[in-house]
Structure formats: structure tokens, C-alpha cells
Amino acid sequence: MNNWLTVKSFLTIISIAVLSPLSVNAQSKKHTAKGPYSAYLFTYFTGDKAGEAIRFALSNDGYNFRALNHNKPVLNSATISATGGVRDPHILRGADGKTFYMLATDMNTDKFGWGPDYGMVLLKSTDLIHWQSHVVNVPETFKEFAAVNRVWAPQTIYDPKLNKYMIYWSMRFGNDADKIYYAYAKKDFTGLETVPKQLFFKPDGGACIDGDIIYKDGKYHLFFKTEDKGKGIKIAVSDKLTEGYMMIDKYVQQTTSPVEGAGVFKLNNGPDYILMYDRYTEGKYQFTRSSDLENFKTIDDDVTMDFHPRHGTVMPVTVKEAAALTQKWANAGDVLLSATNKQIKKNNIAIDTINRKLMLMVNPGTNLKKFDPAFNIFPGIKVRPSSTQDFTKGAVNYTVTIGNKKPQVYAVSATETHNPIGNGYYADPEILYAEKDGKFYLYPTSDGFDGWSGTYFKAFSSADLVNWKDEGKILDLQTDVSWTKKNAWAPCIIERKVNGAYKYFYYFAAGQKIGVATSDSPKGPFVDLGKPLIDSLPAGVKGGQQIDADVFNDPKTGKNYLYWGNGYMAGAELNDDMVSLKPNTTKILTPHKNYNEGTYVIYRKGIYYFMWSENDTRSPDYSVHYGTSDSPLGPIKVPKNNVVIAKNPAAGIYGTGHNSVIQIPGRDEWYIVYHRFTYPKGITMGDAAGYNREVCINKLTFNSNGAIQQVIPTHVGISPVKLK
Predict the structure, then answer these.
(1) Is the distance from CB of 58 to CB of 38 less than 8 angstroms?
(2) Architecture of 5-329 per CATH?
(3) Which of 3.40.1190.10, 2.115.10.20, 2.40.128.110, 3.30.70.980 is the CATH number of 426-700?
(4) CA 187: distance to chain centroid?
(5) What percent of the chain has pLDDT over 90?
(6) Are 5-329 and 332-416 the same fold in CATH?
């Protein structure tokens, strides 16, 4: 993948990217603006419905990618394929430096499910805009392969010894393991001219798919996904293109999550390589960096994309080529959405393309008197002004010019907001004031994973409830918990003094069970008990999940209680060890039929307040309600007007729920912490809004009779809280 040669003359071959033993590694020199490549083209497909089509994105640095054509297909799958769908696109610059080759799996899962899949699509272009395509059905083309039922992830590489393009792909006969085969393409790249031969197979008989070959230091490195017990990405190395591959016996992916679709490309400005792959069960893509193609370091925190790719490849492009791509597929709105200033909450950029307005939310303390959004400018695009501007006086007009298209003017505003807190997707927030160090701590669910498939927990600290510091991972199911590895959800925590020292008890849902971990610091790390605390439904309950724990210390008695449930509310007293329930104290407390999940209990002026979420977290109407009691184990009285917080459509805020509450020490001052759909995209995401959420804080107030006043969720949020 992404290896190519430029033929300068009949006798001289100069390598633009390392490929053959005869080539010169031109990219080992640091490329600047004077070098041949200024950007990167990412070809990919998406996993959403009807997403099996080729899409393009651009990057200036190989780290920050922006989709072209509004993240819509650049080619019509119905006209280039037999099935009406294509996946796994691979793009290559030709040996002449000006012809481009692209391959894709001919596959339409929306229409035909997962096979059988018989074909691949071969594409050829001289300008990256217009493509000629041809379908190759392997069983129909080669009689000896009539029993093949899977043809996946084709790629191509130039063979300088034969002056031909070798195509390689994964293929399966019947129920046998997938193996990697190869054949040579016809000169015009319209089909295969040789009978497929086996290129590589796992010595242990396991399947191997998604091959990607890159040449480095006299060796061909074949990256592939294994389907054995370990499952992951491995490398096989050979000094010959078509034979002799020896497997290195270690996995190179930097995650414990399932992965596929490895793609490797060389950076334009140095000797390093990027290995990227699809964490397909989570809806995530991971980037890693390496200088030797043996040791890889995760660089996820440095990578941004405004799209969710599946199995794709990256190829460096020139200024001229990038300008042609932007002329064809870029638009002013997408250019402005690319603002890269680190003070901008990138998930919360809102654009109005009709009235040509761009609204930026920025972090607390941002200097808006001298502020530059730092738009990501690709070749062929100009944005003016290009320096810092004063946003305190209102919107600033920006003019965007793309090639020879008519310039467009947008009014760009920037506003400091405290909701959501920080950047990123988080949900189910638990908040704690730690007496040990006098700081607030936030413990959320790590969100943004398809189907709530996150596997770790993080903590954040603050001195004022506005400025938050990421304290990193405090518990990872993959490495720290033995009894389950999935669905890290909805934690809660309590600070207790044990033998004169502060200790922290952290309750969490995982695998639809509730566990507990302990630490001597609110920052963790936390040590799991080694077994679930709650792993079955309470007596008398016939449905629901063991999730959404809440821990509560009764200031009247000093006793501690744990609450949990989905579809039901249960509560029980904790033993003094805080890691076990007191026998015969479990009670079902479900307040009324609309109860769903997310119980949270507080005590104020002699009243126990029980809060919970109604509706589904994927619903815009997800909201918090409450009831009161004279006891920590009920019964609960539900007032007629019992809404604590609900959506605010006028502000574009939806899905406000699963809350916790914090009281400022020594004062009758309260704040509600909750999650909402990510703004502004959440309401357009359908069910996916339910696992792309963000954490917010608003003030919680009470009437003179003790009733909770309904909270109106806002973007502005709260002012910094002073403890003293």
C-alpha cells in the first residue's frame, strides 16, 4: 500500500516512496514545501447504511484529515461494481508518477449480507477525479477457483522486475481458512492476466486477511490480520515480492480491541511510517507511528477526522493534485469547519450554510480579543483574514476562495462556553468532592464507541467545576479486571476514612454486572475486587440489567447504601467493608412505571431525594425526574411536577439525563452534572446519539417547600465556583 516509483527515463528509476530493491529512498529526506508531496489523500468507506462506497479525505500532515464532498461518495458504487457496493479501497501511485490505481472489494452487505463475495473492482485514473473501472469475478474468470466464496480487500504493488502491477487479496474456499493470493494485472489494468497463486498463509492454519505490503530497507513487509485465537495484526517479511514471507510472531496493534484493515503509509516530512487500522467493533480508527516497522506508538491524541472511516488507505499527493481535489470536492463550509485552534471545542462547531454563519465554542479563559481559528487550509484554497482577530466585538467576516469558484463570505463568531466541559465524548457522569486534596473529581463513562462498547474509565479534576484536568485512565477492563472485558459503564465513587486514611471505593458497571475497585487516591489507579459485587437480578425482578450503581452515605446515621438497576430500582445497605452488601437489606424501590435507570440520591434538610432517568438514552426526550422519601430505602413519593432537567430544543440541546449532583462544602449550593447528545450533530445521528454524548453542569435550585426547580440546560453553563 502507498508504495510507488517514478520512472525518470528508460534507464533510471527514482523511488518516490520506498518500493523495490533497485529504488532510491527519496522520502528518507525531509520534505518541505519544496518537496514533491504536500498533502495526503485518504480513501475509505463508511460503515453506516449504504456506506459501502469510496470516499476521499485530505490532510496536510498525515494526522488531521477532512472529508471531501461532505463525506459523500466520490464514485457511484452502482456503476463501478457488480453488487452495488464496494469496500476496503486501496490507492496507489503508478510507476510513471502520474497514473493512479485503486482497488476495492465488490461487496454489498446491505443487500446481500456477508457473502458469498466473488469479485474485486479495478480502477484507473490520470487525475484522481475521473476513473475507469472493471469488475473481476474470480470464480468466473478462473475455473480452478470455482469453489471460492470470499474475495476480500484487494491491493496492488508495482513489481519492478517484471514491470507489472501485482494484485494481492484474501480468498477462501468453502469453510477453509482465508489465505492471501496474488496475480498480475493486465497492462491496461482491466483484469488479471495470470492465474492466482498463493502468496502467504498462516503456518498454524489460521485465517489471514487484509494484506498490505510496504517495502523498506531491502525487505517487503506484509501486514495482515490473523484470525487465530489472538486475532490481530502481524507482519511477515521477505526479500522477494512473491515468495519467502516469514512471520514475525508478535501483534503490532496497540489496542486490545478487535481490529482489521491495516494500512501503512510513509510520512512526507521524515523517515517515519504510520500504521492505521479499523477498531471495527467500536466505530474507532487508530493511528500508530513507527520508524522501524517493528515498534509502534499510539498517536490517537494527535489525530483528528470529521468522519468515521472503515478500512482505507492513504497516499501522499502533490500541491497540484491536492488543488484539483479541492477544486472538485471541497466547499467553503467544510473549510471553515476545519478550524484547528486547540481552544476550540471541535465537536461543538455549528454551521449555518444557508445564512453563512459559523459558531465556535471555545474553552474557558480563551483570549477572544486576539484569536485565530486556524482554519486547515489545503492547496487551492484561500481564507482571509489569516491573522488573529478581535471576536469580542461580534462576528468576523471570513472570505473563502476555492480554486476558480466564486468566493463565499461567512460570519464567524466565537463564544466562551462551559458546557460541555472540555472536549470529547463522555456520559453518565459521577462527581465527587475529595476532602483529601480539596478538589472536585469527575468520573464518566468513556463514550463515542459504537454500541456503548468502551472498555476503560478516566477521571478529571477541577478546583472550580469549570476548568478540568484529564487525569488519565484509572481502570481498564482489558488489563485490570479479570471477570469481564466489555461495556465499561456508569461509575460512582465514595470517599471514606479507613484507619485514619482516606480510601476511595469505585463502583462500576461492566458486562452488565456491577464491580467495585479501590484506591488510596481519587486519581487512582484503582484495584478491582476480583469478582463482581452484583451479578444477578434481585429477587422478584424478571428483567433489566445490573448497571448504573449509585453509592450514598446517609449523614443522619453514617450508614452507606448502594442503588442500581435498569428497568427497576434496587437499593441495599453496604457492609462496613464497602465491598459487600448487608444480607437481607436489598429492596425494590422502583418509583413508578416510567423509571428507566440512573438512580442518584442526595440528602437535603431532612429529605432524601431520589433522582433517575426516564426514556432511553438514545431518545431526545431522555430526562431526569425525582421523588422524595423519609428514608434511604424508601418508600419514594413522586410529585406531580417531577422533572429535574429535560431537553431545550431552542438551544439545540437534547437527551439530557443520567445525572449526579454535587453540594459545595459548607453551603446550600448545588449543581447537577449530566450528559446530553453531542451538540450540534447529536440530534441528526439517530440511535448513535445515544453513545456520542458529552458532560455538562448547571445549577440546581430548590423552592422554599423543598421542591426541585426544573433546570434549563444551557451551553453557557456555570461560573467558576470558589470554595473559600
Answers:
(1) no
(2) 5 Propeller (2.115)
(3) 2.115.10.20
(4) 40
(5) 90
(6) no
